[in-house]
Write a structure and sequence with these properties.
- There is one protein chain.
- By secondary structure, the protein is of the alpha+beta class.
- It is 38% helix and 20% strand.
């Protein structure tokens, strides 16, 4: 992946964060007992700069922004490409809960499509980070992450027990 593609991905992540912030600000801001409260997003000051070949700029993305990015990314698959959304379901979860696309569609029929991140927590277990997200409709979704935007999904936190 070349640097311009990486920059495009970073810009998309930041834009997803902004969209999620707008959606979040319209919903209630109640706090769950065991989750970190979703932080308000502060838009960085924009300074226009033209980059030459092999020049780049560092951008810091915090856990809150990553939780929003994972949720928004998967939400778009649920809305626009349900088959692709099913491909992201963790195989262990799929074996226990939804062996085929039709059972998956039933599970997600009224979940995650019009909500946003309410609370989240991040845990590290072995080689993976787990973003456990509660949405504004009080649904739980877990992202098992092993790289930036490289994840599988559990559609609840009860079907498969995460090693602790």
């Amino acid at each position: 992946m070349n640097k311009s593609n990486k920059m495009i991905i970073v810009i998309i992540i930041v834009m997803l964060g902004l969209v999620s912030y707008i959606i979040y600000s319209k919903n209630s801001k109640s706090k769950g007992a065991e989750y970190e409260e979703h932080k308000e997003y502060e838009e960085p000051e924009y300074v226009e700069k033209k980059y030459g070949v092999n020049q780049y700029s560092k951008i810091s993305v915090d856990d809150n922004q990553m939780a929003i990015a994972y949720f928004s990314d998967y939400q778009q698959y649920l809305l626009n490409n349900i088959d692709k959304a099913y491909e992201y379901v963790d195989p262990e979860y799929a074996n226990r809960k939804c062996n085929d696309i039709s059972s998956f569609k039933i599970i997600v029929e009224n979940k995650f499509k019009s909500s946003s991140v309410k609370n989240y927590k991040k845990e590290k277990h072995g080689d993976y980070y787990y973003y456990i997200i509660q949405d504004t409709e009080n649904n739980i979704i877990v992202f098992k992450v092993d790289g930036v935007m490289n994840y599988t999904v559990y559609l609840d936190n009860e079907t498969v027990v995460i090693d602790r």
